[in-house]
Design brief:
heterodimer, A: mainly beta, Phage tail protein beta-alpha-beta fold, Immunoglobulin-like, Maltoporin, Chain A, elongated, B: alpha+beta, eight-stranded mixed sheet, 3 helices
Chain lengths: 879, 333
């Protein structure tokens, strides 16, 4: 059989060679292109002329009929000219050339396009009704199979061949714009897309586009998809939505941080309009700091990081705010059980300038007051307290011509709480008459920036941003008392105020260069000046009329960070796309400077129109971190910088993923990763920092981390029923020389299995919608004693391994139902539902007041949970 | 008329709804649940405890640890226990039976100052546990005392730079007098002694903390207040007692059903404080440091477990030494 196959190959080879030799011999005899001809034809089209020439020169022309149009020629004449000269003259207007390889056959084909025959179309894509920029909208030419996406500012640049084009602009939830254009000059366009009003019409229509421009390792929610996010207490919550994605875990119900692919909750870069913020939660993690009404898009990146992102090891949460309505005043009012919000947006100068402002506040404090009054009214000792948070988001922008835009953004979120204890003594062991103890806690997140976007040329886009980001905490502990018998004289007072926080002043300049057909280059520079207050204690007292005042703590630490980055998005071939880049990060603190180069690489290869594979490698550096605590994280955690002793954290992450579009409804992804981390910190045994400590730099060890995992996700983004189902299998470990005898131990947020599901569907044809989300994760590791012993009747515990046990599994289902009605251009929505609908006790920590079981046969550990079922109702009006 | 009542009606409905909501939440939130530990790894260990005090009998408390399942205890062992002074065998106890239950071994030997002591526990299976400790005599601190309003006393210690040790204070207040039942106005005890451990939070003299900022770390008074850091330097510790304005104090003796404390009246005849100033060995200091770290945040979500310092090779517990000076400070004699 093999012999037969070889023989047939030899015969074919001989046949081909014979033909070639024959052709060459014939060609030596006569070249048809040298034939001298005379023709004179009128009212013939090109095909008829070619047919005429075929007959005269006894040659045959091979060509695709599509390269010529059927337009008639009025006249074509040639007198005693060579066939080659006639063909040049005849074919030139059609951009067609001829090739002769011997024999009688002459091939006609279009002249290959050169660079000079390309033109650039650039511009912005907007929402037609509000003028809001559309981030990630696709601009695509089917004819040439070339396309691009709008950037974070809704801007795009597309270089196209100089032939007729059929351009299509698309965005999920909006009607497509399709247009034919024969304008081959460089153009600057504004595409305004009209939103769909009918659910049926909403489809993801970019499946025909290049798969390479899809982003692996990330999840993107656009303007419309944000409305579909799982709701918490009546409004979609960005953070809660992200927390149930595969590969992402929450730090716990009382913390609300993100733990992405085995990383710590301080290893996520949260950007609001490009500015990093240090705290992302309110109420110990129950609410995220951003009002979703003011958000344009959210993207979570878990790996394969672009070189433009720097400063954290594990993930990027990039939140873009809306610009505000450019055409008319619009607003949104949401009244809920726990908090209410109001958002206004509108033009400052129509079509040129707009604003958006949003305010939210809770009213737990107002509700709680009557209960306090009734509980304390008969008591000499009474307790009282309150808690509230509010946040403000504001943004305004002004367009100067078509090429410049100035934007100013502001965000502030404040949480405050107070516990007060008052006691009046009718009798006392000591001599107190009155005693009052107040504890107050406040944390504050602030961000503000000024940005200038400029389209330098059709192919170069520039963004300059300068701003400030601040995070600070304050804890006040105040004791006042009066003593017998002279309260007017012996009034005394003592007050501790513990503060910490950090402020960053920054400037960055980013250039997006689209000058090359296959390359998109992004480069930039960033300068950050960090100012860290790692904990200060102010103490003041008045005792018997004497006043004392002092302040303790470390001095502020200042550091200066410089980042230079460059990346290339290179479309190597229709099947192969490469994102490669590099970031150089240098940070100087006191007399020490750390300089690191971080390579970034991500390669996509398409198997077919439906499937592609991605591999990536990234190295990241982190120059600050939260003081580690072994307990549950609180938003009052203290950020510390690198110091002469504490080196920057480093990570190397490699990922591989397969992405498959099953059909136009379903998408399947399978991703795996492996991540190494260095210079991580773990607190020494017995140490803790609730409000910081003055000796924090001697209170932890540094070590390594290692995590790996697999994530599977199936998504349905179209149709009436939308949602996803995800699963992740992961393992995250830490290795420290001085902890656990140098053996590896599970990271405190290591959760082996996670299953999550989200579904949004209509209950009725028009008005009623519902959403369901469910999550299950393996319990968090905890350290429990392995034995117990007594000394002098005191019980002590022996701990052998770090994180040797696990709490019970975490699982929860949230339900949200909404009814919407549009009346006189006002959309009214009633939301109700429940958080943790089957009221599963999800443990936050294990109580260390170990108790004996009822039969005294064993030590019993008790898990403490915080949030049972929380039903809610809210009412929203949009106008 | 209908509209007049409407807000009232709404308020009532809202109140009812909100109350119901809170009740439902409280009912459903079972905040604590037992955690099942399935794979506890229990390793049997012997626990030794010996604090050698100058001019006091040397005792050794010996027991074993237990597993999470308290039925897992130390298997019975036979051991020979030896006491050495400056490497000379002073006493040996043969064939002592050791179980998980605590046993006190009294050597009937007085500990002397500036001597090295070693205890060796030799099990039949050749497993030897031993530890050495040294007793150093306390350097007598200077004591200043003032009485009357703002009564205070102050210890000033100049430490020996050559010895790694630490100081701690233990202070108790004594109130002696006639105890009356405050409700029935009847004498309960005509010579009643009420002892109160000193707690800085009871006192208006919060400037303890203030002083501590300059005088290193005074934390709790039963906690080591000094360490090797101030070796060779002079250091003062100031204690303030509440002013003896009235000799009548109220002694808690329980609570009424409504949670209010029941207090009996004690008319003081005598009132004084007993202060122990202890010089403790470095091992004891390390032990107390770890013990304090464990206690400081025990029961909170910030608990970061730490094993107690132990200098017993292969076992648990401590062998250490201390010397002390006790002073009585009279407030009302």
């Amino acid at each position: 059989m093999i012999y037969h196959h070889k023989l047939s190959n030899i015969i074919i080879l001989i046949f081909v060679l014979t033909l070639n030799i024959g052709n060459k011999i014939f060609a030596q005899q006569q070249n048809p292109l040298d034939k001298i001809l005379t023709i004179n034809l009128k009212n013939r089209n090109i095909k008829e002329i070619l047919k005429h020439l075929q007959g005269k020169a006894k040659v045959s022309f091979n060509y695709k009929s599509s390269i010529f149009t059927n337009e008639p020629l009025t006249e074509f004449t040639a007198e005693n000219e060579k066939l080659s000269e006639i063909l040049i003259k005849l074919l030139k207007p059609y951009n067609v050339e001829f090739k002769y390889f011997g024999g009688n056959s002459i091939i006609l084909k279009p002249i290959k396009k050169r660079n000079s025959q390309y033109f650039t179309i650039s511009g912005y894509v907007f929402d037609q009704t509000s003028g809001e920029k559309l981030i990630g909208a696709s601009v695509y030419c089917h004819y040439n199979k070339r396309g691009t996406y709008t950037n974070d500012l809704g801007f795009f640049t597309l270089i196209l061949p100089n032939d007729s084009i059929f351009l299509e602009v698309k965005y999920v939830g909006y009607k497509n714009i399709s247009e034919k254009s024969y304008n081959r000059a460089n153009t600057f366009r504004f595409f305004k897309l009209e939103p769909h009003t009918n659910l049926k019409e909403i489809e993801v229509t970019d499946e025909k586009q290049s798969k390479f421009e899809q982003k692996p390792n990330s999840i993107f929610y656009n303007l419309r998809a944000i409305k579909d996010l799982p709701a918490f207490m009546g409004e979609p919550d960005v953070l809660r939505a992200v927390q149930i994605l595969p590969g992402v875990q929450s730090s716990g119900e009382s913390a609300g941080g993100l733990n992405v692919r085995g990383g710590g909750s301080d290893q996520n870069l949260v950007l609001i309009d490009g500015v990093p913020v240090y705290n992302i939660v309110h109420v110990f993690g129950l609410f995220s700091i951003i009002n979703p009404v003011a958000v344009n898009s959210v993207e979570l990146i878990k790996g394969g990081f672009s070189a433009k992102y720097n400063g954290r090891l594990s993930s990027i949460l990039d939140i873009k705010l809306k610009d505000g309505n450019y055409y008319k005043l619009a607003g949104n009012v949401n009244i809920g059980m726990f908090l209410s919000s109001i958002t206004l947006q509108g033009p400052l100068v129509k079509n040129k300038s707009s604003f958006i402002a949003s305010f939210r506040r809770t009213y737990f404090d107002a509700f709680y007051q009557p209960f306090q009054y009734f509980s304390n009214r008969k008591s000499l000792k009474n307790y009282s307290g309150w808690y509230y948070f509010y946040d403000i988001v504001a943004k305004a922008n002004y367009k100067i011509g078509n090429r410049d835009k100035i934007t100013i953004s502001f965000f502030r979120g404040i949480d405050r709480g107070k516990i007060s204890e008052k006691q009046i003594f009718s009798d006392t062991v000591e001599n107190l008459l009155k005693h009052e103890h107040n504890k107050q806690l406040r944390w504050n997140t602030l961000m503000s920036n000024l940005r200038w976007d400029r389209v330098l040329t059709d192919k170069i886009f520039m963004v300059n941003t300068a701003g400030i980001t601040k995070y600070d905490t304050k804890f006040e502990d105040e004791i006042l008392w009066e003593t017998k018998p002279k309260p007017e004289q012996d009034f005394s007072h003592v007050k501790y105020t513990q503060t910490s926080g950090n402020t960053d002043y920054f400037f960055n300049s980013v250039f997006e260069i689209n000058s090359f057909i296959k390359h998109k280059i992004v480069t930039g520079v960033e300068l950050i000046y960090h100012d860290f207050n790692t904990g200060t204690l102010d103490y003041s007292t008045i005792f018997n009329k004497n006043e004392y005042d002092t302040s303790l703590g470390k001095k502020n630490i200042y550091s200066f960070e410089k980042i230079l980055f460059i990346e290339d998005n290179w479309k190597i071939s229709p099947r192969l796309f490469l994102n490669c880049g590099m970031s150089i990060n240098s940070i100087a603190v006191k007399n020490k400077e750390y300089l690191k180069i971080q390579p970034r690489l991500s390669l996509n290869f398409a198997f077919s129109k439906k499937a592609f594979i991605n591999v990536s490698y990234t190295k990241m550096q982190q120059n600050l971190q939260v003081l580690p605590n072994n307990g549950v994280g609180l938003p009052i955690d203290i950020w510390i910088p690198v110091t002469e002793k504490l080196k920057p954290q480093l990570s190397e992450q490699s990922t591989i993923g397969i992405f498959y579009s099953v059909n136009r409804h379903y998408r399947l992804s399978l991703e795996s990763y492996i991540k190494f981390m260095q210079n991580l910190v773990e607190i020494k045994e017995g140490e803790y920092f609730v409000f910081g400590g003055f000796e924090w730099d001697n209170s932890f060890y540094t070590g390594k981390g290692f995590s790996r995992g697999v994530e599977i996700m199936i998504e349905k983004q179209t149709g009436k029923v939308r949602g996803w189902l995800g699963y992740s299998l992961s393992k995250s470990e830490r290795i420290f020389e001085n902890i656990n005898n140098g053996k590896s131990f599970p990271f405190k947020y290591d959760r082996r299995h996670q299953i999550s599901a989200f579904m949004k569907f209509p209950l009725t044809k028009k008005k009623w919608n519902a959403s369901l989300s469910w999550i299950y994760t393996t319990g968090s590791p905890i350290t429990v004693p392995s034995s117990v012993y007594k000394i002098d009747n005191k019980i002590y515990y022996e701990f052998t391994d770090r994180n040797n046990e696990r709490m019970t599994a975490y699982h929860r289902m949230d339900v949200s139902i909404s009814k919407s009605k549009i009346y006189k251009n006002r959309k009214r929505t009633l939301n109700f539902g429940a958080y943790n609908i089957y009221s599963h006790l999800n443990p936050v920590f294990v109580s260390t007041n170990y108790l004996l079981s009822s039969d005294k046969s064993k030590l019993t550990f008790y898990e403490v949970g915080l949030l049972p079922i929380i039903p809610y109702i809210s009412y929203e009006i949009s106008f | 008329m209908k509209w007049v009542f409407c807000p009232l009606y709404l308020t009532l409905v809202m109140k009812f709804l909100f109350k119901s909501y809170i009740i439902i939440l409280i009912t459903l939130s079972s905040c604590i649940k037992e955690l099942e530990i399935e794979n506890s790894t229990y390793k049997q260990k012997v626990v030794l405890w010996a604090v050698l005090d100058i001019d006091s009998n040397i005792n050794l408390k010996i027991s074993g640890n237990k597993g999470i399942n308290l039925n897992d205890t130390l298997d019975e062992k036979i051991a020979d226990i030896s006491l050495f002074e400056d490497n000379v065998l002073l006493k040996k106890i043969w064939g002592e039976k050791i179980t998980g239950t605590m046993k006190i071994i009294n050597f009937n030997v007085l500990a002397k100052a500036n001597k090295n002591y070693m205890i060796e526990v030799n099990f039949a299976d050749k497993n030897i546990i031993s530890q050495i400790t040294t007793i150093n005599k306390i350097i007598k601190p200077e004591l200043e005392f003032s009485k009357g309003e703002g009564a205070q006393f102050k210890y000033t210690i100049t430490d020996d730079p050559l010895i790694k040790d630490a100081y701690r204070f233990d202070l108790k207040k004594y109130y002696i007098g006639v105890l009356y039942d405050s409700m029935l106005n009847k004498v309960i005890d005509s010579n009643y002694t009420f002892i109160k451990k000193y707690d800085k939070f009871d006192e208006p003299s919060i400037n303890y903390n203030f002083i501590s900022f300059y005088e290193n770390n005074i934390q709790h008074y039963t906690f080591p207040v000094s360490d090797q850091l101030f070796s060779g330097k002079s250091k003062s510790f100031l204690f303030l007692l509440s002013n003896p304005i009235s000799n009548t104090i109220f002694v808690p003796s329980g609570t009424y059903a409504n949670g209010q404390p029941i207090r009996n009246v004690l008319v003081c005849k005598k009132r004084y404080a007993v202060v122990k100033c202890l010089k403790i060995s470095n091992e004891y200091y390390q032990f107390l440091i770890t013990e304090n770290k464990n206690n400081a945040i025990l029961g909170t979500s910030y608990y970061n477990p730490v094993n107690l310092y132990s200098n017993i090779n292969g076992g648990l517990g401590l062998m250490c030494s201390q010397s002390q000076r006790t002073d009585t400070v009279w407030v009302l004699k």
